[in-house]
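Input chain follows. Return structure tokens only.
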Amino acid sequence: MIVVLVSIVASDGKKVYEKKCASCHKAFVPVEKLMKNFKEMNNTMLHLKAPTLNQLSFRLKQQIGDPRGDEDIHRMEVSAFIADYLLYPDKDKSICMKDVINAFDTMPSMKGKISNEEIEAVSQYLYGYEEHLLHQKSMKPESFENALQKAQKEDKIIMIEATAPHCHYCIKMNREVLVEPEVVAALQKDFIVVSVDVSKKSLPLGLSASMTPTFFFVFADGTKDEVKTEHIQGAWNKEDFLEILKEAKKAKRKEK
């Protein structure tokens, strides 16, 4: 019931955002562009009026309260912060990085312009925004059992991402690289993706990861029950990760 209520409130929150926030806060800009815009060009590339929703969603969940604790409590902590900031904005309370904060003036107070119900609705929408966005823009992971069947049938490579929920570099890969259109296109063409939270589940095939993220490439033989694997550790930028995928394809051809 709680999940259903949150979903309904978030749906209303999208309407509040579109009506009262969208004129200043763009919804989504890729992280790579945001970093260049703020770190290298002082907002002269994008000319944003305010932080984007994907920036705010990420920073709120990382900076406010305890992101490792109970989610319902964390939602309330984030909601309370948003309510306070909308009514009493102050740069000293901002959760954005300094390069971002310095690009903007302090927003005007929304006091008398937004109701408590609207604040709660837009808070719930913002809390789940980036996670929902990542699911939309990245390649949907399969279970290993399904991936193995599809790989043998479609002659594709299985890519297993060993991840953990509070791994900084896993988060970096998921929000900066694995959502990039070129990366998604390369994965869709030649790979089947499996994601394993190693804090909760064991990796298949007896594999083990000494760090996260680790990417395992599994080459399944379609004619016999045989698999071979290669792996690479760490977080990468888009260009390097595309090269890693190319090398995996070369390795697959050698295995034949």
